[in-house]
Amino acid sequence: MSGGEQEMSSYYVGVDVGTGSVRAALVDQRGVLVAFADQPIKKWEPQFNHHEQSSEDIWAACCVVTKKVIQGMDINRIRGLGFDATCSLVVLDTHFCPLPVNNEGDSHRNVIMWLDHRAVNQVGRINKTKHSVLQYVGGVMSVEMQAPKLLWLKENLRETCWDKAGHFFDLPDFLSWKATGVTARSLCSLVCKWTYSADKGWDDSFWKMVGLEDLVADNYSKIGNQVLPPGAPLGSGLTPEAARELGLPPGIAVATSLIDAHAGGLGVIGADVRGHGLVCEGQPVTSRLAVICGTSSCHMGISKDPIFVPGVWGPYFSAMVPGFWLNEGGQSVTGKLIEHMVQGHAAFPELQAKASARCQSIYAYLNSHLDLIKKAQPVGFLTVDLHVWPDFHGNRSPLADLTLKGMVTGLKLSQDLDDLAILYLATVQAIAFGTRFIIEAMEAAGHSLSTLFLCGGLSKNPLFVQMHADITGMPVVLSQEVESVLVGAAILGACASGDFTSVQEAMSEMSKVGKVVFPRHEDKKYYDKKYQVFLKLVEHQKEYSAIMSGD
Ligand SMILES: Nc1ncnc2c1ncn2[C@@H]1O[C@H](COP(=O)(O)OP(=O)(O)O)[C@@H](O)[C@H]1O
Ligand SMILES: O=C(CO)[C@H](O)[C@H](O)COP(=O)(O)O
């Protein structure tokens, strides 16, 4: 592209609402991030397993970051806006005002976060119905989906919330409504989290069977009766009010949104891989697994025909790449688990002090510390007698068992920095073994996978990336733009603007390979042994439970 052409380039704004922060980027037609901003968002945990946020706080953060990324820009060259967000539940009354999702009646906290596990009892009853819609969520509905949360609200906050509610939104759809005033929902959120079927629509019998018949009665107006594919333009674009708040021109195209993991998938899975020595170069796109690793990890695999993988969500039609079925494996806490293990260790204050003295992040410090103590063997071998089972927040895939707990075996009395670093390493490895476990389940059901495409905050950690390559035996592709989830959101904005004819075209133009990390095949035997131990851990945990629940 000549300098002149560059001058004329169009731009898109992508906004990504993660669990811990909101990020925005200004992205050009080739998928290059020209500006980035982020802003933390508030989280409340009023009780164990209750996690709440505020939709007003989230929207305010969206406005802050968007204004930052367009500073100094000719805003008339911005042609589209796309949002992605976590799949949290936003509750508003009939006048679109926030309603409390808590016993305290605090209406500021009107979002039940995706990782909230308050509806354990409700999801148990939903799963007992064995309703046919459950086939499309891996056979077992997760407590993190929306139906159990809605049932919890109905059963626990009837007067203060349920009876007053006018709108229940998935967070990505709340954001597109805020921007456009259009209440249409994304096919992505409804199919993945609300049991909607791309070809059959809502299933009345499911809602009646689980005790949420009131949602059927008014033709689903509270949860969505207009459904659009991700990337489709909404209404007349950005409203004057939202334009003022975001600092963007009114009327620019706003796209139907995606859940954050799915935006990450769009941002990485369609890249042109030629010239990188990757086996997937000669294979269909269905050989690629996008792994979006943030607070949680999501494993997104696509197929031409539906594949039913027990314990893995889906198959979902057109929920990520149009025309393809999607299976979504996941680990509910990954980034959050690493933080939990590191911050809870007695040597954490020492780690913080040493890392800040070197102006390094704690993870960069830990990675270099592991290199120092590894002696002659590869770093990964430091955990020969320390093993972790990572389900501290239950197992999402492939066991779909929220009763599972975390395990660590091989603890010693030492509490020094070496000990912390090795525990951190074993945790990172356990997360990678969890990915291998999910891949094996997907392959046993019919997927044929050869290459991982990693993105999200954890993909900035070279140890995390190398362990995923070594433990799965697959090369890991990292995108040219580290913030690939934002590229996915911008792809949506670009599609809505009409600058690309399809999501596929935008994906192939805007997502680019950066770095490839190959597995160290010489270490395979060691990791195969550790994987055997990994599988034994859960087997043993189940035995312990059986002993304790027996007479
Ligand atoms: N440079 C980095 N090195 C290591 N870990 C990182 C880095 N940046 C972010 N992370 C980790 O990634 C996780 C958050 O990822 P992110 O994609 O921002 O999450 P979310 O989308 O859930 O808000 C955190 O656990 C954080 O510690
Ligand atoms: O269920 C999910 C996607 O379907 C995600 O786990 C959820 O949206 C949270 O994402 P993140 O860990 O990036 O904050």
From TrEMBL:
Going by the entry's taxonomy, the superkingdom of the source organism is recorded as Eukaryota
Per the record, the coiled-coil ranges are none
Q: In which pathway does it act?
A: Carbohydrate metabolism; pentose and glucuronate interconversion
**Keyword Kinase applies:** yes
Q: Which GO terms describe its biological process?
A: pentose metabolic process
InterPro entries according to UniProt: ATPase_NBD, Carb_kinase_FGGY, FGGY_C, FGGY_N, FGGY_RbtK-like
Tell me which residues make up the Carbohydrate kinase FGGY C-terminal domain.
289-496
Keywords from UniProt, A to Z, are: Kinase, Transferase
GO cellular-component terms in the record? cytoplasm
Provide the E.C. number(s) assigned to this enzyme: 2.7.1.47
Give the GO molecular function terms: D-ribulokinase activity
Domain (Carbohydrate kinase FGGY N-terminal) ranges = 11-267
Q: Report the top EC class in one word.
A: transferase
Which reaction is the catalytic activity of this chain? D-ribulose + ATP = D-ribulose 5-phosphate + ADP + H(+)
Q: What does this protein do?
A: Postulated to function in a metabolite repair mechanism by preventing toxic accumulation of free D-ribulose formed by non-specific phosphatase activities. Alternatively, may play a role in regulating D-ribulose 5-phosphate recycling in the pentose phosphate pathway. Can phosphorylate ribitol with low efficiency.
| Protein family | Belongs to the FGGY kinase family.
Q: What is this protein called?
A: FGGY carbohydrate kinase domain-containing protein
Species the sequence originates in: Dipodomys ordii (Ord's kangaroo rat)
